[in-house]
Amino acid sequence: MLKESAPAGRISLLAIGGGVVLVLAAIGAYAVAAVSEDFARMLVISYGLAIALLVASVLAMRRLLPRDLRFLALAAGVPAAQVISLLMSLVAFGPDAVPQVAADLVALVIGLVWLFQRPGRAPLLFLFAYQALALALKTYILFTQDFTLSFIRGVITTILVQILALFVLYDAALKMKARAERV
Question: For residue 25, is pLDDT > 80?
């Protein structure tokens, strides 16, 4: 006699998002490898720096957030890593980079300050909307503009981080909604 199989477990939204980002990262790595002679160095610089910033930011957010809001660490950590990355761009490229990063920097800082001052769904949805708009713009730019190798590497990394941000912000908004319903 056949036993009934256990009900399938629900796959976490973050697991799905992580899988999507990994697949897209592999595609991005292939694209960079196709045009790069020094693929390993490019990969470490592009993805390694992004991963290091993400990990450091998420760990910092776990320390900064109150215990009952630690589930927001990823949702705050990813935009915080983006802010750090944009500030590094300003330092590296000087005043020439200001027009390219100013709007992103302002939107991310407003969203993060709002999230810390009044944790809730509204700042999460604001950051989500920003990420969706920025992702659409970066994707459009990727497919319509002439680019250099460093440009494509930067845009692909930015797109991957924005996709990750969409997943973690949506997941946090769902958790915040469930938390509000319990209270």
Answer: no
pLDDT of residue 52: 75
Percent of residues in the chain assigned helix, strand, coil, to nearest 5: 85, 0, 15
Tens-place pLDDT, residues 87-117: 877 887 788 878 888 899 999 999 999 998 8
How far apart, in whole angstroms, are the C-alpha atoms of residue 138 and residue 158? 8
Tell me what pLDDT residue 37 has: 53
Q: Which of 39, 23, 134 is nearest to 79 (CA)?
A: 134
Which of 78, 79, 178, 163 lies closest to 120 in space, CA to CA? 178
Nearest to 54 by CA among 86, 25, 79, 30: 79
Per-residue pLDDT tens digits for 147-182: 665 666 677 778 888 988 998 999 999 989 888 888
The CA distances from residue 98 to 52, 95, 104, 132, in Å, are 24, 5, 10, 22
Going from the C-alpha of 136 to that of each of 7, 43, 44, 100, 180, the distances in angstroms are 37, 24, 26, 16, 31
**Residue 17 and residue 21: Cα distance in Å, rounded?**
6
Identity of the amino acid at 113? V
From CA 99, how far away is CA 125, in angstroms rounded?
A: 25
